[in-house]
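Input record (one chain):
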Amino acid sequence: MNPVLLDEIIYLAALPLLPALLHLYFKCFFRFRSQSRLRLVMLYLLYMTAQVLLHYSSLPGPILLAGNVGLILGLSLFYQGTLTWRLCTACFISAVIVLSDAAIPMRYTDTGYRLSLLLSKLLMLMLVLLLRRFVKGEARGQLTGWLWSVLFLCPVMSIAVLLELSGHLFFQRYPQLFPVVPVLLLAINLLVLLLMDRAMSAQAERSQRLLLEQQNSYYVNQYHRNKEFQEEALRFRHDFNHILLGLRARILSGEEPASRAELDALLGWSKTSGAYCDTGNPLIDSILDYKQREAAAAGIAMRLELKIPPGLVLDTAVISVILGNALDNALEAASQLSKEGGSERYIAVHMHYLNDSLFIRVQNPYSGTIRQGPRGELLTTKDDKRNHGIGLQNIRQTTLRAGGLFNLFYSGGLFELELVLFEIDRDCGVFLPGG
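The corresponding structure, as predicted from the sequence alone:
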């Protein structure tokens, strides 16, 4: 058989291993955006078609390399996760493919070329399986800017170093030593990726711990609120007979107007002694009550417009992140307004439930300027950027992860956050007033 034809047959036979390895790799960190296997197969068939077209084109080597890397970057967009993390890991697997091909020193004969096609794929498979064993695979958390730069530049610089050293006189004289370079670069890239994965996992665990602490504070607040109400009810019940005897004596003595006023006060007891917020949804009530106390201490008014039924089946983590962070940001912005400047310090919370969807809007005035990042995200103006400026990011990511909608607007000194959560069910066992 013609050796050239045989090489092409072996190349085409080994080609399907590459998309399988890529999907296996991306599954280490991300989920495919669609649940349809047909869409997954069609996507990788298109990738293979583009690979074949590039392989048989007459484009220069650097352009072919850039085209292959671009295809892998495009594949990463069809998976869920932080965009920066997806692009960086796509750069890593691109470097693994290039370095694995260079690490197999069997290309100086036809047989060596054919073996290298298979052995390089086996090396990639071994590395991917190694990653699947050691990575956390959460794809959550935020890294600082310089860590993102390291994660991105490491595979890019590895490919550049490989291309530069491939033409070096030393390795032209001793070609058998050249595979040492890609092997070392593979080890460095693998170590960097694992370290970044650990860093993101640690940051995600820290965020989860802070969320649990925040939820605990809401539950403690709810407990104290219920305890105060119970104690007040017990005191009222204990004194109820004495109050009735006093009212009876007043009525018999002709003090009807005073008795009527006291009865009105008693009828209003349940309202005045109740909680600040009482929608029948303990989680929402607890968060709003907790934040209202903070707002009152800071001299900030909270305006509530709540049209939600009791007994909503809510995800504790989702509501705590969204409502807690939104009110924290609003409190911080409103507290920066000068009391002497004439600006009203307030937070307006609007929530309503319609067609199994929960609509939330939080408004607050602000002062100063708002900075935006390159992708439209808001940037903190504080010096400690690691611990600030992530509230809105958490709200956005949590909302989108829950399948909801997220929008924010700001103009004329008014900041407005709007979001919608879908498929919110109701507990039919909860008593509905007027039902």
